[in-house]
Design brief:
globular; Glycerol uptake facilitator protein
Amino acid sequence: MATTKSKKTTKSSKSKSAASKTTTKKVVEVKKVVETKPVDAELEAHPMKGFFARKFDANENILTIFKSPRIYGAILGEVIGTMFLTLILLTLGVYQPLYIMFGVIAISMAVFALSGANLNPIVTVGMMATRRMSAIRGVVYLLSQVLGAWLAFLLANAFRSTVEEPADFPQMAEVADGQFWLITMIEFVGAIMIAFFFARALAYKRSTFTFSAIYGGGVCVTLLFIIVVSSTYLSLQNNFILNPAAALMYQILPAGGENFGEVFGAICSALLTYVIFPMIGGVLGFYLADFAARLSGEHHCCGSNCPVKK
């Protein structure tokens, strides 16, 4: 009899412990639901909260960034990637958008794991302005991109020097007074489009191919837009470059002029058209993408440092 009672007691204790475990799981699940509800409600009520929050590693600064070998891999990735991209622009111009699209996809897939495949100051400045990237990393990337564009120019010229009558590089027309704002606005709008597509591609950065395909397709759409607008509607036959690093090494410095004022004016006009306004457009493109994502309820673009999630 005593044995039977002990067995019953053991069974009842096991059933009680199983019931308590089930109850604990339910309580934990309820707590999770309760914890997420206020966050969702807060996001719905204040979709722009944390819009300007820092999204990069808070520990990354000028004292720590060079201690890790990863930054040197990123620098190398930006130099090599920008060099390849500039070579494509120097040899094809922008009037081969499909070839450039495939080139951008291939280069982005090759260097994305190294540096994130910015490859363009338009993108890097937008990343810095939206606090996706620290200032020191952004400056390092910009210098790397200019270096990569310079190496591409040297390499292309080295091959041209071996030919008796080499083909000319695609030429961008000088920014004359009558066409200054037309050319500048085309570069400006094109930069907004490139930055927008890059920012949206970042939402799929876990898949390198998807990211590269979205960004490469966006570059193709942008080139088609500026080709149609400049050639058909404005009668401009210019090879818009949409990359300030390539423009600095390739087209900014004029070959000469009658006096210092003319040379200086040409430099300033080219800088405004091919560097300053495209970078401003890049910032606006990133903010436009973030603004649309926030309004649609997509908050994962902030990353782990988003204060709304906390």
